[in-house]
Amino acid sequence: MRTHGKATGAWARDVAHFGHWAPRYERSLLQRVFLTPIQTATIAEIGREVSQPQAILDIGCGTGVLLRHLAGSYPLARLVGVDAAAGMIRQAQAAVPNGLSLSFAEARAEQLPFADGTFDLVVSTMSFHHWADQQLGLHEVRRVLGAEGCFVLTDVVVDPWLSWAFAASGDRIVTARRLEAMLAAASLRRKRSASAPGFGLRHGRMITVARPGHLGVTAQ
Question: For the segment 130-185, what is each residue's pLDDT rounded down to a tens digit?
Fold first, then answer.
């Protein structure tokens, strides 16, 4: 994906908005009614794909809710979250219960502060459509993902006929075909997709599971 002024400006507004919202985020109706079912579905898909990951990265981790749940399933794993909003990171750090070893860093998807091949599971839940440069972010996912690793992405994916309705997003709301092409361009091979709760939209939310590889297709 090409970064342009509209996407970059929207990203900056998103970061400011979420940073301001962070202290109230986990108490919001959005979290309870909308995000919790999506996170539950994502965790279920992760359980189908990986058994005992050693290192897990959550991109766009918010206040760390998903990682705290994953800590219960993978108590021996190193769990790391990054978010571009400093306020979210502060809340995530403050919310870590005693006895849990979670770490958080303020960072963008497009510039992850980790060495190549650090993680065997990378997850992003309802964050992808906020990334300023989705293609660069996917390249970073592939870079920090180990050769046998798994990437689980849950986000808004729309039918092609609905694309026009999301033009104001700066092309950050994608179709399934475009997402698969973007993954391939980043040397990530889509393994399968599954539905996630999405207000009844057929392709309103989709969980995409990808592995390292290259399909050799180009974005449309």
Answer: 999 999 999 999 999 999 999 999 998 876 555 544 544 456 788 888 999 999 99
**Domains in the chain, number:** 1
Q: Is residue 142 part of a domain?
A: yes
The CATH number that applies at residue 144 is: 3.40.50.150
Any domain includes 93 = yes
219 assigned to some structural domain: no
Task: Dig out the tokens for 29 from the structure.
Answer: 């109706």
Beta strands in the chain (DSSP E): 55-59, 78-83, 102-106, 119-125, 145-158, 174-175, 188-195, 205-212
Polymer length in residues for the chain? 220
Residue spans of beta strands (DSSP E) within 11-144: 55-59, 78-83, 102-106, 119-125
Domain membership of residue 218 (yes or no) is: no
Instruction: Note the pTM of the prediction, 2 decimals.
Output: 0.84
Q: Which residues pair with 104 in a beta bridge?
A: 81
Which amino acid type is present at position 18? F
Of the candidates 217, 198, 220, 215, the residue with the CA atom closest to the CA atom of residue 207: 198
Domain of 65, in residue numbers: 5-212
Angle, vertex CA 146, rays to CA 144 and CA 148, nearest 5:
150
Token pair in block for residue 70:
């994953």
